[in-house]
Amino acid sequence: MTKRVRPKKYLGQHFLTDIPTAHRIADGLGASDGGLVLEVGPGMGVLTGRLLERFGERLWVIEIDNESVEYLSEKFPSLIGRILSEDFLRLDLRKITEGPISVIGNFPYNISSQILFHLLEYRDQVMEIIGMFQHEVARRLTSGPGNKEYGILSVLMGAFYDSEYLFSVSPHVFLPPPKVTSGVIRFIRKENIGLPCSPETFKKIVKMAFNQRRKTLRNALSAIWTTDLETTGYGGLRAEQLSVEQFLELGVIENRRDA
Predict the structure, then answer these.
(1) H or E stretch at 166
(2) Which own/partner pairs from 204-207 qualify as long-range (CB within 8 Å, at least 24 positions apart)?
(3) 231 CB burial (10 A radius; 0-12, 13-18, 19+)
(4) Taking every pair of C-alpha atoms in the chain, what is the biggest distance, in angstroms?
(5) CATH classification code of 9-189
């Protein structure tokens, strides 16, 4: 009999235990491009079982917990050879495949934002993402300008992906139960992900603006702009008031200055 895995607090593990919820999450993934499906942090494999039914040999999983790796190998022998015992945040996805990837997972709350930052580095490959997040983070990721939850990842993800809040998940379907409600989000990559400015400039401006979000952009971006910013009419606004397109406009101006 396969031994159960102990959830480890230092890894932020809260194992999903409810089969209907797992099916609902897994069935939200389209992955119609025929590419690889990568599950991040499968834990005890409640989501993995349904993903195997749907995607078979297209499914790979990455799990940093050796105890979980051993458990998954025993429970799903067909996965052997496609279980990566690594830290996802250090994983080079191109070493697995150069083709399209769909990513899914019950993401540990303590690194959920870092997971998205990492996936943004592979936006040319990552076509779709479905993730479980802390409800507060899920709201932030799917919020728009003018909303206090709107932030750095809202803008960076919004430049490349369309997001949708799918449903909320009660703490009672996890082991151990988290202290907060969770939210499941789906990101679908936009058809045209080319930017009018360099991605590095765009990211720099967004981070600089939101890191001092209580200040107007005139002050928050003063290290890089003076008069140029005033020509946009955005100087008296705060970061949370600008759309993705307006941040891209600022990126274009900065690139022209650097040229």
Answers:
(1) strand 161-169
(2) 204/254, 205/247, 205/250, 205/251, 205/254, 206/152, 206/155, 206/156, 206/239, 206/247, 207/152
(3) exposed
(4) 70
(5) 3.40.50.150
Length of the chain equals: 259
Domain 199-258 is found in CATH 1.10.10.10:
no
**What is the per-residue pLDDT across 72-111, written as a single tens digit (0 to 9) for each?**
999 999 999 999 999 999 999 999 999 999 999 999 989 9
Which residues of the chain are in CATH 1.10.8.100 domains?
199-258
The DSSP code for 112 is H
Number of Cβ within a 10 Å radius of residue 154? 22
| Residue 185, φ and ψ in degrees, nearest 5 | -120, 145
Specify the amino acid at residue 108. Answer: P
76 neighbors 40 (Cβ within 8 angstroms): no
